[in-house]
Inverse folding.
């Protein structure tokens, strides 16, 4: 695939993501593509080396998906990101990184649409979020309301020490998990303190266990 076609393809793929997300692609040593977003720009240029401390560096060295917060010491801008390495013929070729802006300082609520208006929900009152019917549904003790923001956006803007993605359709607040029960195929069921039960899917089970330390 020549560079023009490769870059054009990634530009099209980028349209599938929120305009708050930057996308970077690297080989095993340097960046080969970068598309900044409207909200965050790490000033990466094709040919720049993948430096230690970045999401891309960690993914390349572990050859595993990496998702975490990186402080401003690396690029001068704090960001949340996810980097996924890719292989060809079982050989590591590089990785793709999605870069999310840190939630605005001082913002500690999720604002949802209710039946007759909007309601700001403090982070500590959010029990879980569910992606359904092209909306994100926010639950506290009861279903509260919805927002058009994608669940993927919330995964990188909510406090990482409190909120964990456990399923393609769910993010949970760990402070509201009452019990964790084993389920089939090495997965889990979360009993939340509002009475709901949330599944942990197989693709997130290992990551979930690592973050919660069990």
């Amino acid at each position: 695939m020549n560079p023009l076609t490769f870059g054009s393809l990634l530009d099209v793929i980028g349209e599938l993501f929120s305009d708050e997300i930057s996308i970077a692609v690297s080989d095993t040593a340097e960046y080969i593509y970068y598309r900044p977003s409207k909200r965050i720009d790490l000033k990466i240029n094709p040919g720049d080396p993948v430096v230690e401390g970045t999401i891309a560096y960690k993914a390349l060295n572990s050859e595993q998906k990496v998702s975490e917060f990186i402080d401003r010491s690396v690029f001068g801008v704090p960001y949340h990101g996810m980097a996924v390495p890719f292989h060809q013929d079982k050989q590591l070729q590089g990785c793709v990184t999605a870069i999310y802006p840190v939630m605005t300082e001082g913002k500690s609520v999720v604002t949802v649409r209710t039946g007759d208006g909007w309601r700001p929900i403090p982070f500590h009152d959010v029990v879980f979020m569910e992606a359904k019917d092209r909306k994100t549904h926010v639950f506290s003790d009861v279903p509260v309301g919805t927002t058009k923001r994608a669940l993927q956006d919330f995964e990188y803007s909510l406090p990482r020490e409190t909120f964990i993605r456990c399923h393609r359709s769910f993010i949970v607040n760990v402070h509201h998990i009452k019990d964790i029960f084993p389920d089939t195929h090495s997965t889990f069921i979360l009993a939340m303190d509002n009475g709901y039960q949330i599944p942990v899917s197989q693709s997130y089970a290992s990551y979930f266990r690592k973050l919660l330390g069990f």
